[in-house]
Amino acid sequence: MTTIALAVACLQALTLTASAPKPGGMQTGVPAPDTSAPVPVPPLHVAPAPGARPPVADLSVRPPGGAAPHAGGETRCALCHSTAGWKQVTFSHDRTGFPLTGRHRAVTCAACHRGSDFTRPVARACAACHRDVHAQRLGQRCDRCHDTGSFKQASFGADAHRRTAFPLSGRHATIPCEECHGDRRDRTYARPVVQCVGCHQKDYDRTAADPRLLSHVTAGFSTDCRTCHGTWRFNPGAFPAHETCFAIRSGRHAGIGCRDCHTGGLPPYAAGQVLTCSPTPVGAAPADCMHCHGNPAAQHQAVAGYLPSNPRCYECHRFSSTFPGATGGLR
Questions:
Q1: Which of 181, 190, 245, 267 has the smallest number of CB atoms closer than 10 Å to its CB?
Q2: Do the domain assignments include residue 56?
Q3: Closest CA to 242 of 232, 233, 230, 255
Q4: What pTM was estimated for this model as a whole?
């Protein structure tokens, strides 16, 4: 091939190369972009360097769905939200020191965190959210009587009542609240009277009207029922002052009734009076020992001067620690 023919062939080859389509549809000599190079990441999702704190994004940008923006904070959305939706909050409130239980779990975040501002402190006192229907008569600790399940189901029972001026024991711990708190409907629970007669005046008066009972009015017994009675039942009763003269709470005569011995009536008695322990009480017949024991003459044949009379029985047989011979019954 001559020099001229070779030059013509090279010129034709260059012309064809210049006129061929370029990658990317470009018909210029500018090189096409390299698709194998990494795509730049937006600043919001730039991975932090090892040991560096994650960048703080602008939370004024509304999340999908048009929800109200947060007032400030970090952008670790996964702490509270999931990919299922913005409204399904998965934040664990336990680590805040105020675990959400009962009906508190159904309360929205904005109900306590105004304006979705989670940087502003929220009052933890019950009265900060709940109106006090007791008009501050029972203090500010709602959790002493209520739980987060319901206000109607109060948990103030006998154990909690021990912190009051009237601990509940015996049958008092089983009666409904309104038996003593007549103002329960108004939810004030004003302190009722704690004297026994405040509730048991009718029981006290009934002893004088019922012939089967011992008249407390005639006997002059105190209206402080606790002196003789417990909180489980009225019968049997106890008379502590009687122990100094004749034991009826222990020993052979334990549990004996008043009328079992005092068949002719009780001696007059004033509350707090010290008993004289006389075998012939003033104003009443002596205790009727022979009502139960009969005439034990056979057992007293060797006793000089024995007489089958009630006063003589008591002169020798005094079942009391106050006098000698308490266990044997001999004075």
A1: 190
A2: no
A3: 255
A4: 0.50
